[in-house]
């Protein structure tokens, strides 16, 4: 873990290094993925069966065995303990309510020239959700990826999840059911992405693919981009906690570790104007690590990427945070709304001393799929906007065309696009 | 040009072939582009000077010569003939008004559990606009790319345009001035994209790069994606015209040619229930080609990619159009709004017999940067949304956490993320 102090002479150098720190090592799997995609395009279902046998340690008897039946999904749901079912239900309802509130309005305006201009939002016809398999199969991710699609009005939501050795987490199926997923396939890797993008006899193609995955899945999404839409490729997760003296150091410490326990590449940064809190949190992190089940991962993340930045005041904290543009931002200060007003770049913010990021990861309502690695400068979290697209439209009659058409003729001719100009001039009687 | 008829037995086969038709040949320039980007990252301004000398046939005396001064921009503007200045002004004002109307509202909601949830839109700090040089330097594209950024509230808008042999279109500079571009550089190709993404001593980095370009520019945008945001890579342009019997065939013919004159890869498709109109339009296209300055390009596009599809009725026209998901769609029918209601997938629609696409290309107001090649199934035209990002936020006090926190604890434990669960439980007194 690094200690930085904005009053130190080498602060700028060290902070710039923190900003540039590469936390991700990308495996080069381009050629392997291109081969898998070509195989799925050429051989369809037969390729899916073969690739599943090769990579997932089970052999589907045929392509129909890839589909998880409605009965299997119901049976899995029935096995969920009541407290988990209640928690899933609360999460699904709250996520749905927030994402429905995001739904934008259409636009229609008639202007002085007599043209009517409009913009209409429409849902995608079909989307694919990729869900990692095995231990990384998180039901909360199923909710966060699929519910915005349903709220947007997408009719067909296909989900692919690898089942290494046949293992499939029943909570994932229960989440899929609550999230409105219409089809579930036991299928993973680049072959799942290829099947969703290009379609096979048993899996109809979709228009957009979202969801996290390993290096093969990420590369496959890159390669099918253009054929279908994709979400951005997520990097390792991160949190910035801005905390003043009025906090319990243990709370801050566990919040930092909640980020660090994701994986060794995760990053947790405390920014505080209070040197005593900084010291107390550093000690509390070590204390908490003693009892944390995922201590090995969290300790490695904290050691390699963690940082405590001592600042002069909260204005300075906000300025540094804008340079970090973190995925998650906790504002554990007396006046969190005033501090939020100074933040320009963050994926999601959590305000107050009783609002740890984990609330947002599971049940608050806003999405937990967020821009990582400083991309919050230009990118946003997953939302209904990922599953909607816009059609703009213009309506003009002869009078409206007479008002604006001559300018179009001038510009068309200026650009040397004579047919453009003529398409207007002809209607103006020219 | 292909003639298709939905009543013909081979219609489905031929329409499917039309859908799958590849109109683009992509040059493989990956390695060359990677080399250019590495050079710009390593040598900064010196690389920009060398690469410009190599590719653009002029040698900047140093990096400061890349910047177009405010005086040069004003001088170029002063040389614009009055009719073109008036047309540019009208276009800029109308585009700005429409894009300002797109600006979305923030969201804030307090729920029954006592949490306050919000979503806040914010502008990007800085964006880069790439503008192709030479003859393809279109002032309308400058307006369409830069004005949405200004309407969104972006403070810094840098524009790069190559000046092969020193040539720079004064209309492009005049458009940049009206669009709120804050910096103009005589710089093109992958080196311009690299400079905007990574920054050099003389060009500060931006957060997102938009605008069309050749294969090198497109590949460079792909390679810097993640470091900065990019817009989608545009393919060849296309139009579908749905026209009933009540149209002047010459109008339809020129509209089809306005698309075809862009380049040989453009595609123009007429869909009509009227065989007589189909025949008359086909004849009128040949007639119009005789006098069109860009006839060679337009004829080649029409011959290779053009199509006339005879349909039973307008319902069928709408269904086929949804499969084509065209970039541009003209609805030259008696009741265009009713037909628009049946269209799910199109980048931009033009309603009525007096609304040729060229009106939208220049002066109507909506953007002319639109999804091509069937990507309107999932993608949208350029808009203020390309220059905004969202921060979601959650505010909770102890009572709100008590209402939703236990569910977060259950889900955190179910996912094996103990520190997540503990960050909530600790605050609940657990």
Give me some keywords for this one.
45% helix; Hstdl_DH (chains A, B); Rossmann fold; 430 residues; 3 domains; histidinol dehydrogenase activity (chains A, B); homodimer; 15 strands; alpha/beta; EC 1.1.1.23 (chains A, B); six-stranded parallel beta sheet
Q: Which strand order spans the largest sheet of chain A, edge to edge or round the barrel?
A: 1-12-11-10-13-14
Largest interface: A-B, 122 and 122 residues
Q: What composes the largest sheet of chain A?
A: 6 strands, parallel
CATH architecture of the largest domain in chain A: 3-Layer(aba) Sandwich
What's the count of strands of chain A? 15
Descriptive report:
The structure is a homodimer of 430-residue chains. Chain A is an alpha/beta fold and 430 residues long. Chain A has three domains: 2-24 and 235-364, Rossmann fold; 30-230, 3-Layer(aba) Sandwich (Rossmann fold); 396-425, no CATH class. The first copy, chain A, is built from 17 helices and 15 strands. Chain A has helices at 11-20, 30-43, 45-56, 70-78, 82-102, 139-152, 170-179, 189-198, 215-224, 249-260, 275-289, 295-305, 314-324, 336-340, 357-362, 398-414, 418-425, and strands spanning 2-5, 67-68, 107-110, 116-123, 126-130, 156-161, 183-186, 208-210, 229-230, 238-243, 267-272, 307-310, 328-332, 348-351, 388-395. In chain A, the strands form three sheets. In chain A, strands 1-12-11-10-13-14 form a six-stranded parallel β-sheet, with helices on both faces. In chain A, α4 (70-78) packs across α7 (170-179) and α16 packs antiparallel against α17. Chain A is globular, with a radius of gyration of 26 Å. Chains A and B meet through α5, β4, α10, α14 and β14 of A and α5, β4, α10, α14 and β14 of B.
